[in-house]
Fold:
Amino acid sequence: MTSLGGLTGFWVIAMLTRYGEAQGHSLNEPDVPFPPASPTVQNLAAICHQGQGRPRYPASFFPVSGASHFRRCGNAINRLESWYSLCCSGHAAQQSQLLCCAQQAWKQALSKFCAEEYSTMTLPYECCEDRGDARWKCFDSELPNPNYSSTPGYTAPELPAEPGFTFDSNAC
Structure:
């Protein structure tokens, strides 16, 4: 015989799971706010000065199996934050090129993310299907953190620098 409390608990879990799935989330999915916003004059100071207060996603953040899309999102954010630090620490030869450097880092990181999305047997992230300016407009919509605000009380773990970023000052 099943207890009424056990049956009620089962239905509560089932309803929470169904509600999360209806909202586009599973209770087992890692929380990786994605996509990152395009760098602008308005958010550039936060990009450079609050970077250590924004989440990073080491391999240990994700479950051992599954969640590969979220892992790719987390890797894209880690890569982007690493490349932002290059721009903000003087990789851009002049202060006037800082925004241009950050914008190039954003586009290169998301381009690499899309290449990784297409290398899987699953459907790619919807913005990756677009080309040119349409892709960047798509990525820069419905943003979870448009101002690059830090998370109170959070300090990002040290992660290895991500190779592969090339800043082209002539493109500014």
Q: What stands out?
A: The mean pLDDT is 85. The longest helix spans residues 68-91. Residues 79 and 163 are 8 Å apart (CA to CA). The chain is about 45% helix and 0% strand.
